[in-house]
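Reopening: structure tokens for the zinc ion complex, inputs below.
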Amino acid sequence: MDDKERDVSFKSFLGPDCLRSRVTFTRNGQHFCVYCGEKSDTREHCPSKVFLSEPYPNDLPTLPACFECNNSFSSDEIYTEMYIDALKFLSGNSNALSDKTKRYMENNTAFNDAQTDLDNFYVTGVMPKREKIFRILTKLSICHMVYDLSEGYSVDGCSIIPSRIEYTTSIELSKHEKDDFGDMIKISDKKLPTIGSRVFDRIFVLNPVFEKETEQDTLEGPFVFLDWYDVQDENYSYVSWSENDDTIHVKIVIHNFLYAEVVFPQSIIQ
Ligand SMILES: [Zn+2]
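Re-run output (same inputs, fresh job):
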């Protein structure tokens, strides 16, 4: 089936509004920063290796970013990683701080902010600078939706501001709630991702077969599910999808401990 036939097939299945032109990472051979829309000469890994362990996955997604944006997130990413690791340790969800956090803690000059807050955290239990964590969750989510859905690509100076950012930790969630959070996303009744976007690798169609004719009458049709992308087991998973109202949702789980959801009001490019 070529692309055109596939488009027609999906149109008949989910309606013509489900299709949009694909957004690419380049225009006229030039790459543009996914965060600010400026011309970019660098590429960055998403998620950042800060949240992963060695050996890193070979096929880590990379996206174009300008030098300024690429650099501007580093210290906040480390802050977020240290917060997760420290809270995990203090809550008894791990036996020790990670070697990575210990290394960061030794490097006072570069990461003073996180170090100071972490020291206070042990005494008062009060961390973090939530704006830093929000900023990183936003950054990660932009990467994921651009990479997966080919949407929300920031061009022409547009910025992408989430309408909602929420995170919680394993401490606050029951096992049942964690399982719910990690469920595959049923997208049969939502906007289908752009044809050819990377997220298609993780779409599954389940077509249940019922034995009795009466039950067939109530069949909702094929159930289309979107699975999570496990970037690295135990460390990082995410899933992103579009709702019918054009909001884009990204769920992220870091170290099986931080559970986040970020919602963007609508895609910039229609
Ligand atoms: Zn930029």
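DSSP finds eight helices and twelve strands in the chain. Residues 33, 35-36, 38, 65-66, 68-69 surround zinc ion (CB under 6 Å). Marking as resolved unless the reporter disagrees.
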